[in-house]
Amino acid sequence: MGERQPFKLQQARDKHGVVVSARQIGEKPEPFTRPLRCPHCEHEVTAQPEQPRISTKGKPFTRSAHFALAKEKEKGRTAEHLPGCPLRTDHTVHAIARRSQGLAELRAGGLQLRLVLAATTDTKRPFLPPVGSPVLPPPADPVNLKIRTVEPVLPPAVTSAARIAQLLALYGDAPENIEHFTVKHPGVRTPVAWSDFCFGPAPDHLARLYQQLAAGLIRHPVAVLGEVTQVKTTDSATSCKIAARVPTGLPGPLAHAEVYLRADSHRRPLLEPLAEGTRVLALAAPDVAWKLWKPNSSRIGHQVVLWPQAHWQIAYWDVDDVGLPTPPRSPNPLDNPIRPRTRTRPAPTRPAPPRRTATLQRPAPTASKTVPHPSGTVEAPAPLPAASAADVPQSAVPATDTGRAPSPTPPPPAPAEQPIVAPASVPPPVDSQRRPGFFARWRRR
Description:
Elements: E1 11-13, E2 19-21, E3 36-37, E4 44-48, E5 51-54, E6 60-63, E7 66-69, H1 89-99, E8 104-107, E9 110-114, H2 156-170, H3 175-178, E10 181-184, E11 192-193, H4 194-197, E12 198-199, H5 203-215, E13 223-227, E14 230-233, E15 237-247, E16 256-264, E17 279-283, E18 291-293, E19 303-306, E20 314-317, E21 371-372, E22 378-379, H6 438-444
Parallel strand pairs: 9-10, 12-13, 16-19
Antiparallel strand pairs: 1-2, 3-4, 4-7, 5-6, 8-9, 10-11, 13-17, 14-15, 15-16, 17-20, 18-19, 21-22
């Protein structure tokens, strides 16, 4: 990156300690009192107004207004921030490269980060080195293996990305500063610009993410940098709004979109540390991407949503009153991560055919007429039981010439019943109480 300070300061402190923005440079009269100093150390800075310039290749361009470190009085000494200042870019960038375990490489044009992530967010699967991870020799001192830059443990690529985002935020996310960082994705030949990997926090920059999601042009994991402005918790999910009023180019209520982080009841601990005012870097995974949700109601705008599944997809930090960030952190890993449910169709089962049982319904016999038997034969009416001599009164017995009552005649034997055979179809029972028709009564006359 060179010895000179490539980043341009966007803020300074005047003689009375008032913070001044680079946008105020060139105003008449000047809204600040000289001398100016670095906002985080006592090094003197100078105001550089906007000027037209010509590049080394002969192309004209306009240099934006900014603050620059004043030249050192000692000849041959390069101006740099005082020790302990967070704006010492060279020291910060070198520290990011040292702690990245070989994933962040210093090049002539700036810092290139190789974004090596796990192929899946399922932590129950056996760990395998991701494709593109550097092959580094083991350190000479085994104690170095226990050094951790972030608690809980974050992948070196995510930690480096969070620190780069913090460094750029200190300089106001100026486009000329962002050009010094690139990201190398596994499987992508050319490095991706930082502005195509990390979107936000400016709404205009998030609008590019919305357009790419709507057109389906996202081919690699991307991150969103934002600030939590709203947290909602229900019985089924937790939602955190990290950006609002993102222009979409659509008319009416759909003119602006919002960016959310959501987690179901099983992964709710991933969003519990987030509160209003917290800075968040939400990173997609190869198997968990940012989605564009379009509600059915025309009164609700579109939403860009990420459902994180692992703790390393979220890095968060706080910013104090001066604007200095705290070290990035992540939520605690899930103890029992829930695997995504796979929908399987049950095997089709044929219902068993119902059993057919033959039921016999024998019609009740009537004394008035004979009932035809289902087999075709005519069944005689059942005989009445014979009365005994003791039951018959003497007055009812006719007398003979001899004066003695005749002996009772035995009843005729009952006809033998034929076995009943189950018919193919049982006929409906005959209603004995049905009144005969007019012609039947006329014939009886």
